[in-house]
Amino acid sequence: MMKIMGKAGVGVFPVTAVIRQEVQNMYRVETIAKIPGATERFYALSVERKIKHPAVLVISDVARKKLQYR
After folding, report:
1. How far apart are CA 18 and CA 16, in angstroms?
2. Are 48 and 32 part of one and the same domain?
3. For a Cys-Cys bond, which of 13, 19, 23, 70 suits 6, CB 3.0-4.6 Å?
4. Cα dihedral 30, 35, 38, 42 in deg (nearest 10)
5. Which pLDDT tens digit goes with each residue over 5-17?
6. Phi, psi dihedral angles at 51 (to 5 degrees)
């Protein structure tokens, strides 16, 4: 509901920094403020205790580097 109100120009909604540009383009909305000190956390869940699959390892490593301290 918040997203619809924000798109209609009658509300605001939070968006993570990682997808901010995509959301702005898709819904034709603008950033009105950034919240200093706000943090984002991303989790990858696995049934294995340690990631072994080479492709999953690469994806995990790249995501960790790109999503850190944006």
Report:
1. 5
2. no
3. 13
4. 0
5. 656 667 788 888 8
6. -70, 130
Same domain assignment for residues 49 and 65: yes
State the amino acid at position 2 in one-letter form: M
User: What radius of gyration, in Å, describes the C-alpha atoms of the chain?
Assistant: 16
What's the confidence (pLDDT) of residue 5?
62
Torsion of CA 24, 25, 27, 33, to 10 degrees: 10
Same domain, 23 and 10: yes
Tell me the residue range of the domain where 51 lies. 40-70
Is residue 27 scored above 60 in pLDDT? yes
Q: What pLDDT shows up at residue 6?
A: 59
**Residue 66: in which H helix or E strand, if any?**
helix 54-67
